[in-house]
Amino acid sequence: MPGYLVPASAAEVELRFKNSRFIGTAASASDVDEAKAYINSIRTRFPDASHHCYSFAAGFGATVVHGMSDDGEPSGTAGRPMLAVVQGAGLGDVAVVVTRYFGGTKLGTGGLVKAYTETAQAVLAAIERVEKIETIGVLVELAYQSYEVCKRHIEALGAQIEAEDFGAHVELILRLDEERFTELRTTLQDATSGRALVERID
């Protein structure tokens, strides 16, 4: 799987709609537990707020898990429009919370959708992004005489050596960009006349 964009850091914005304060916060969340922990941290930070509506995308593409909540607002006026913003932002591993302090004037269904949508858009526009590359673990077994030449190939392909074991043969545990696995396997097998064992381990 190719890389995808994720938040590089947290972001926060504040908008006002008819005297109600809407505080948009967003941060990285690589799985559902991280997303829920972030949402709970915002609840703790603003304990007296009227609502803490949220949406998140843990992962990206075919493996993404989405979540959302209206947190007491009329159904469909907060979580769903916020999720639409998240899905359209081209970001993965992100959680967005919009915290509302009621200002005394009801916004109506259309007004709520507008407020939550625009606050989510504003905080995602403010967030810094970085590319996340999916990596995998790789087991390599080879003879001692092949170690030096294979190590050079491994480093040239950008793999990180996480562990080395020198027993009856050399055993390496690598961390590698997923899309380069086939190239690594072919390169090491060519360098050892097919004797190197190269396997994915996660």
Question: Can you tell me about this structure?
Answer:
The structure is a single chain. By secondary structure, this protein is of the alpha+beta class. The protein folds into 2 domains: 4-132, 2-Layer Sandwich (Ribosomal Protein S5, domain 2); 135-200, ACT domain (Alpha-Beta Plaits, 2-Layer Sandwich), CATH 3.30.70.260. It is built from 5 helices and 11 strands. The protein has a 5-stranded antiparallel beta sheet, sandwiched between helices. Strand 9 and strand 10 form a beta hairpin. Helix 2 (79-88) packs parallel to helix 3 (108-126) and helix 4 (147-156) packs antiparallel against helix 5 (181-191). The longest helix is centred in the middle third of the chain and has 19 residues, at 108-126.
Task: Give a brief description.
The chain is of the alpha+beta class. It is built from 5 helices and 11 strands, in the order βββαββαβαββαββαβ.
